[in-house]
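Notes from hallway chat w/ T.B., transcribed later so I don't forget. T.B. wanted the structure written out for a chain they're using in a teaching module, and asked if we could keep both sequence and structure tokens in one place. Agreed to drop them here.
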Amino acid sequence: MKLGMCHYSYHRLWTEQSWDIDRLTDEVKALDIPGIDYHARLLGTQEGAAERIAAALDRTGLELSGFSLSTDFNQPPEKLEPHLEDTLKWLDVAAQLKAPACRVFGGHADRADPGDVEAGMEYIIGVLKRLAPEAESRGLVLALENHSGLPGTAEEQNRVIEEVGSPAVRSTSATTWAPGRKGPTPCRSPPSTPPTFT
């Protein structure tokens, strides 16, 4: 296993101090961490992103450990469709960089309402069935996140992966988050946790 730093870990400094890709990559290099995971929402635009990231990685010798697509699939169709178009453009960036995994977040739901959770799960599964062939055709893996939304448990992750039925959809597990929590909470993943992409 190799260590990697998530871009999002620096989201406040990125915004408050107007960091760019070079500054972020230099900070991670200074920590002697060999990998980095860039975050689409923080990058802002696809234009030139792959080239800037590739140059920063080449200059520092860091490896691309992942690429976060910053998704929320549990949205009404009028918001979802533009979001999916944007996600496809980010998939193109990830493919140019040969990202080993693209982190995706399913979406939000009211955990206190089992009907809302079930409807959200079914909706997210449907969206991922549409998106999985796009990822697969680009040689990418969508690594489904498990914190603070849907899917939020190992069982929910397993269900999504099984029902989507694509080798392009796998999981990434944040073992210090619990469903419905607003911040890190020590917890253990159930033994059925699917394979983890780091």
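Follow-up for T.B.: The longest strand covers residues 63-68. Might be a good example for the class.
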